[in-house]
Structures are given as structure tokens and as C-alpha cells.
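Reminder to self: C-alpha cells first, then the designed residues, so the page reads top to bottom the way the pipeline ran.
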């Protein structure tokens, strides 16, 4: 019995020796480098690319079949420019599993790999020829897929010190991925293996740099076509422009398959430094993809930012539904909670709860949302539609019942001093891409203490032109209508506003805290200006302002009282200067005036004011550049029998007295310029008005003297 076994053993040993000698002979005799030229020619004819192999090609036959290559380069399609390069590559296969139709790859090692990817604005890339498959290749892949007995195992993948250059004009992405490293354990069917990946990103578009590290446990099932990731931790740290950021993505388990993909929780945390600190966290609870539908039981976003002593908090919650075939995303129960804290605001803390729904069609790149909010004394309802996310066209409607902006805007009692030396040029080029078409309606609005009702603000923006045509509102027993326009090219601003039948005094008191004019009437404003800086808008202002008022008063001076007080000194010709007095006023039955502005300086020469005892005309200048007024009104006394203290001024009838109003806008002064009236005119007028009185007094005095004289003489002769 032993003899047959000995014969078998000798036979096997002999066969093994022959095979070993054959492999050894092939290793010494066969040189794979002699096929370099054929391989290079094959690539040239088949792929129209230049292949160069400057290093050695080495084959290994035992115990594993493998190949290693060095110094490989591949050109771009029909070009000599380099597309890819590789310092060293090695792949080895186990021989015995091949007999059982099993592929067991010992190790895949790639060192010093360099790739370059380019895509133009039309979507044509430099790898289109490589990924394009011919019919023979597709049939071969289909045949391999149908062979259920074929399986493979990889002892490990080792990619080290590799780089990837990208220039994608269509996605506006340009940069480089370098120091790319990938290391795995054994990759096999139903086998769990550790995976480590690291790389450095450096991009010019967008300006960013980062380092990424990924660690996870990977397991796949070929038969079920599934992939299971456990303890996934992704860390990305770097800079956006000059601001540092940190991003983490974590999940305990993520299951991916063609039938179902799910995770109990996926968490994303982000931090952004710089002038504005931002911390954000996104949590996806019960993430599920099944039957071409994606669902998230709860999407929870929390964000907190700080800047210059102010803070903002945002919390967003909603369930999420998405049909993967139509790419329609829905957030049917959207709840947003915003909290603002800013010491610069009149109300330092503002809490804004928002509820509504949102849907987006990712295929059509459109979005629709309906939102409602109630905060403080305000109720808000808005609808928003967006078309084309890459160049969005936004239409909206906003309805607000009442809004008091003064509740939130702090008014400083000390006017800010302009520092033009630190002012920067306006750069509003980004507004050229803004497309808006919407309407804002407010039932009751208070801003800068102005009370306005039934406000309608139509807003449109397209190609850098922003317009509000058809503005309408009710205010101070009258109405407002007008248009506003702004053009980004040249920063050109224009405005036409008409106030009809309004009470002017409460407007000035509420808005400017100036109690200077009473009356009811119209105000028409038509101006345009431009400037590289905001401060230049006043300097370049041109246009007109017109007003017509009736049954009112100019407050701050009582011309009748002032003229009466100075009547006794009228021959002195001394100008009388006095500050405005809010308790004094000069009544009028009608007042009209206009101002024509040229480069920030307004001239007016058509003042006309009528009162029972006065007629007032005048001319002067409004200087917006220096915030000064210099205006001379000429008051003529016409009727002294009626009106405001008229009877006391009968001696000054038909005289014209200049009244100069001048000074800074916030500190105006009034000056009655008696010295501007001729001396003889004053004397003649005074003489004409006083002569009848003097003659009457002389007659009365003569009669009294005569009576007294008769009495004295009678008494004297009677004795």
C-alpha cells in the first residue's frame, strides 16, 4: 500500500519541480519590457494618447501572479500634454483561487499618482474618450455580471502621495487635491474592513484650503449589492478665504443598497471663525431611501453666530420627503425659530417664530414656499417662488398687518459725523444678477415716527435696475403716490413722490421733530442723483421740490407782533435778530414755493404767501452740501383793519420789510432787516401815518388851553 503512495508522491513532486523549473526559466528568459513598444502602440491606436514607460515592468509568477510598473505617463487625448503619471504601481493575484473562478487580489499599491481633470463651460471633459464604452466592452461587462459564481477578495489597497488637479469651468471649480492617501484592510464579500482616507485640498475657485480625514468600518455584500458603513467619522478643517472652518460628519451606521438605504442618525457639525463666528449643527433622524422615495423623520438645524457684540440664533425643524424619480423635495411642516440679540437695536432682543411649508423641484430648479409669522405686535404672511437656482428669478408677496420699525431701530440723539476719508466706494455689481418681482403690503407702518397706512411697495429688479413703481400709501389725512428707481451702473438714484391733501405739520413734527409749518396741501418731489459713495449723493442731487399749502401758519416768528414791537424804533434802522420761538407763528391763507436743485444746491425765487394783513415773497438758497439755509422773505403789510394784530400796524401799511431766515438746518435764525428800507421812505411813511393824529391832538390841546385860560382870567377879574 505504501508503494503506490510513494509513486504518487514522487509523481507530484516531479510535476511540481517541472512547473517550478518552468516558472524559473520563464522568469529568467521572458522579459516583459520587450512588449513596451507594442503596448505604447496599442494605446496610441486605440485611445489616441501617448503612453511612456520609463521604468521597468516586472512579472511575478509564484506564489502570486503579479505585475509592477514604474515611471508611467499618459498624455491628453490627441495631445502631448500630460494627463496622468505614476511613480510606481503593483498588483498581484493569488493563483489557486483562479482555478475556482475566484479573483483574490493580494494588494493594490499606487504611489505618486498624478491626474488632471478638465471640463469646459459646455461640459466637455478630458476623460470623455476614456469613459466612453464600445459595444464589445459592454457585452463583456454584461457577461461578467451574469456570472454569479465569480467573486473576488482584495487583501488591501494602498494609495500614497498622490494628487489630483481639477479645472471645471462649468462648476466654477479650480484647484488641487494633494497628499492623497487611501489605506484599507482586506476587502472581501461580507468582510468588515477598516478604511482610512486623507487628503489636502487647495482651491482658487472658490478660495479655500482644507485637510480631510475619513475613518470608517466598511462591509459589502456582492449578492445583495449592499454597502455597510459603521462608525463613520469625517473631519474637514481649513480656511474659506481667510476665515478658519471645521466640519465633522458622523454616523454610527449607514446602510446603502439598491433596494434600501438607511441610518438612524446622521450628524453634521460646522464651525466658522473670523469676524463673524458661526456654529451650526444639522441632524438627520431616521434617514430612509426606499422605493424611489427619500424620507427624514426630522431634519433639525441649529445655528448660532456672533459678530461685534451681536448674536443670532436659528433653529429649523421639519420632516422631509423627496421623490427620487421626479426630484421633488417637500418640507410640509416647516418650523423656524429666529432669535436676534443686538445692543444697537432699540429692542435688544427680537424673537421671530415662523411656520409654513416649502417644496422644491430639483429637476426644474424651482422652489415654492408659504410662511407665516407672528412676533411682538406683527402678523406676517408671505409666499415665495424661485425659478432657476443657478440664476434665480424670485417672485414674492408679503402681507403685514402692522409693523413698528421704531420699536427696533434706535434713534441717536447725537447726529453722526461723516468721515468721508474712511468711506469706501460702493460696489454693487452683485445686484446685477438679482431678479425680483414682488409686492409688499403693510396695513399700518411706523418708521422714523412717521405713521403710514395702506402701504403698497411693488419691487422689481433685473439686470442691475431696481424699481418701485406704483408706490401708494395713506398718511396724515392725505395720500402718497410715486416711483423710486436705482441703476447699479453709475449708482444712479431717482425718485418721484406726490403727497396730496396732507396735513404738513404732523409730518414735520413726527419725521423731523420740526414744528415750523402748519397747513394742508400738496408736495411734489422729483429728484435724481448718483455717486461712487453715499456722501456724494447730496452733492450730485438735481431736481425740483414744489409745495402748495392753505390755511396754515409759519411757526417760530409772529411777524405782526415783531413789527408792532419794533414800530417805535422804526426810524433807528437797526436790524433785529431773534431766534425761532415755537410759541410764535404767522398765519397765512395760502402758501406756495418751489426749489430747483443743481448739484446739491437749491434755489428758490417764487415764494408766495398770503395772509389777511401780509403778502410775502422771497428768494434764497438751500445748500445740501453744507446743510445750510439762506433765504430772504419780503413781507408787505396790506390790510391793517383785520387779521393777526393788524390794527396796531396801520402806520406801516404798504411798507415791505425783508425777513432773513438763515443758518444750519437744525438751528435757524430770523432777522427783520429794517436797515434795508430807505430812511426817507420810512420817515415819509411814518409822517403820513402820524400827521392826522398829531393835528387832532394839537386841536384838542388848544381847546383845553383856551378853556383853562378863560377860567383863570374870569377868576382874576371877578376879584
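Designed residues (719 positions):
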Amino acid at each position: 500500500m505504501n508503494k503506490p503512495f510513494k509513486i504518487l508522491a514522487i509523481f507530484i513532486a516531479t510535476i511540481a519541480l517541472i512547473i517550478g523549473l518552468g516558472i524559473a526559466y520563464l522568469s529568467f528568459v521572458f522579459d516583459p519590457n520587450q512588449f513596451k513598444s507594442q503596448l505604447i502602440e496599442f494605446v496610441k491606436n486605440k485611445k489616441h494618447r501617448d503612453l511612456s514607460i520609463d521604468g521597468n515592468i516586472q512579472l511575478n509568477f509564484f506564489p502570486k501572479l503579479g505585475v509592477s510598473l514604474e515611471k508611467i505617463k499618459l498624455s491628453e487625448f490627441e495631445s502631448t500634454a500630460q494627463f496622468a503619471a505614476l511613480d510606481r504601481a503593483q498588483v498581484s493575484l493569488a493563483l489557486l483561487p483562479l482555478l475556482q473562478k475566484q479573483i483574490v487580489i493580494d494588494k493594490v499599491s499606487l504611489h505618486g499618482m498624478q491626474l488632471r481633470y478638465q471640463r469646459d463651460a459646455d461640459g466637455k471633459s478630458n476623460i470623455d474618450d476614456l469613459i466612453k464604452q464600445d459595444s464589445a466592452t459592454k457585452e463583456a461587462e454584461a457577461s461578467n455580471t451574469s456570472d454569479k459564481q465569480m467573486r473576488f477578495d482584495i487583501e488591501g489597497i494602498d494609495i500614497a502621495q498622490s494628487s489630483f488637479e481639477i479645472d471645471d469651468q462649468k462648476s466654477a471649480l479650480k484647484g488641487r487635491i494633494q497628499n492623497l492617501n487611501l489605506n484599507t484592510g482586506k476587502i472581501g464579500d461580507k468582510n468588515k474592513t477598516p478604511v482610512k482616507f486623507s487628503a489636502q485640498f487647495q482651491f482658487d475657485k472658490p478660495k479655500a484650503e482644507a485637510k480631510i480625514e475619513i475613518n470608517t468600518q466598511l462591509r459589502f455584500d456582492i449578492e445583495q449589492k449592499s454597502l455597510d458603513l459603521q462608525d463613520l467619522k469625517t473631519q474637514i478643517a481649513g480656511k474659506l478665504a481667510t476665515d478658519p472652518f471645521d466640519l465633522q460628519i458622523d454616523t454610527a451606521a449607514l446602510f446603502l443598497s439598491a433596494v434600501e438605504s438607511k441610518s438612524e442618525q446622521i450628524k453634521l457639525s460646522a464651525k466658522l471663525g473670523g469676524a463673524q463666528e458661526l456654529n451650526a449643527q444639522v441632524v438627520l433622524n431616521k434617514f430612509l431611501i426606499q422605493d424611489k422615495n427619500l424620507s427624514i423623520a426630522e431634519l433639525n438645524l441649529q445655528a448660532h453666530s456672533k459678530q461685534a457684540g451681536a448674536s443670532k440664533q436659528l433653529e429649523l425643524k421639519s420632516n422631509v420627503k423627496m421623490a427620487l424619480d421626479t426630484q421633488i423635495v417637500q418640507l410640509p411642516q416647516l418650523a423656524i425659530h429666529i432669535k436676534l440679540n443686538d445692543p444697537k437695536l432699540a429692542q435688544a432682543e427680537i424673537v421671530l417664530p415662523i411656520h409654513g411649508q416649502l417644496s422644491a423641484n430639483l429637476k426644474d430648479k424651482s422652489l415654492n414656499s408659504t410662511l407665516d409669522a407672528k412676533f411682538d405686535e406683527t402678523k406676517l404672511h408671505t409666499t415665495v417662488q424661485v425659478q432657476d437656482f443657478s440664476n434665480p428669478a424670485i417672485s414674492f408677496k408679503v402681507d403685514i398687518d402692522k409693523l413698528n420699525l421704531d420699536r427696533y431701530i434706535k434713534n441717536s440723539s447725537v447726529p453722526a459725523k461723516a468721515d468721508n476719508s474712511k468711506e469706501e466706494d460702493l460696489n454693487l455689481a452683485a445686484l446685477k444678477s438679482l431678479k425680483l418681482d414682488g409686492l409688499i403690503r403693510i396695513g399700518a407702518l411706523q418708521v422714523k415716527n412717521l405713521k403710514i397706512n395702506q402701504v403698497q411697495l411693488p419691487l422689481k429688479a433685473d439686470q442691475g435696475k431696481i424699481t418701485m413703481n406704483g408706490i401708494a400709501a395713506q398718511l396724515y389725512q392725505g395720500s402718497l403716490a410715486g416711483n423710486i428707481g436705482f441703476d447699479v451702473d453709475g449708482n444712479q438714484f431717482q425718485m418721484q413722490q406726490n403727497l396730496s391733501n396732507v396735513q404738513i405739520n404732523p409730518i414735520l413734527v413726527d419725521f423731523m421733530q420740526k414744528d415750523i409749518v402748519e397747513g394742508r396741501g400738496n408736495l411734489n418731489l422729483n429728484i435724481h442723483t448718483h455717486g461712487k459713495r453715499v456722501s456724494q449723493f447730496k452733492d450730485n442731487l438735481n431736481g425740483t421740490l414744489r409745495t402748495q399749502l392753505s390755511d396754515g401758519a409759519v411757526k417760530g416768528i409772529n411777524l405782526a407782533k415783531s413789527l408792532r414791537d419794533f414800530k417805535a424804533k422804526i426810524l433807528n434802522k437797526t436790524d433785529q435778530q431773534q431766534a425761532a420761538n415755537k410759541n410764535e407763528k404767522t398765519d397765512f391763507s395760502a402758501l406756495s414755493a418751489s426749489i430747483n436743485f443743481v448739484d446739491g444746491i437749491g434755489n428758490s425765487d417764487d415764494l408766495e404767501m398770503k395772509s389777511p394783513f401780509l403778502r410775502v415773497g422771497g428768494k434764497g438758497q438751500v445748500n445740501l452740501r453744507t446743510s445750510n439755509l439762506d433765504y430772504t422773505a419780503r413781507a408787505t403789510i396790506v390790510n391793517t383793519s383785520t387779521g393777526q394784530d393788524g390794527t396796531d400796524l396801520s402806520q406801516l401799511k404798504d411798507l415791505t420789510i425783508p425777513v432773513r431766515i438763515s443758518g444750519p438746518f437744525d438751528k435757524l435764525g430770523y432777522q427783520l432787516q429794517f436797515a434795508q428800507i430807505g430812511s426817507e421812505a420810512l420817515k415819509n411813511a411814518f409822517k403820513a401815518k402820524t400827521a392826522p393824529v398829531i393835528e387832532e391832538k394839537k386841536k384838542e390841546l388848544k381847546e383845553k388851553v383856551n378853556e383853562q385860560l378863560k377860567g383863570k382870567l374870569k377868576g382874576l377879574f371877578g376879584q
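The helical segments are 2-29, 36-47, 128-131, 135-146, 504-512, 536-539, 559-566, 679-718.
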